[in-house]
Amino acid sequence: QVQLVESGGGLVQPGGSLRLSCATSRFSLDDYHIGWFRQAPGKEREGVACSSRNDRSTNHADSVKGRFTISRDTAKNTVFLQMNSLKPEDTAVYYCAADLRQFGLCVLSSGPYSSWGQGTQVTVSS
Length: 126
Known about the structure:
Blueprint: E1 3-7, E2 10-12, E3 18-25, E4 33-39, E5 46-51, E6 58-60, E7 68-73, E8 78-83, E9 92-99, E10 115-116, E11 120-124
Parallel strand pairs: 2-11
Antiparallel strand pairs: 1-3, 3-8, 4-5, 4-9, 5-6, 7-8, 9-10, 9-11
């Protein structure tokens, strides 16, 4: 399975920005649907955004629309999550995930994704 490594997390103040990166190894990023998920302590994992392998269409959760943007850089085998206007409720461990089996528009449920990164902590606090 594809190997995924997240980076870019950290501590930011409310209203600040971060860009998370998810790098793949040995496999082309274009072969996979890629999703970003997050999990806060005591809460279930939730889908944040995803990018489809076929037409590169994207899907963003209502809670982050207008603030977060998922994108791909195929040449670098990397997917990004640009996070702007961060809120304390965005605090969570963020994971990227990949699946080569999905067709059409990617989904924000975690079930179809078979490969997961180790996660990167995002903390939004003043």
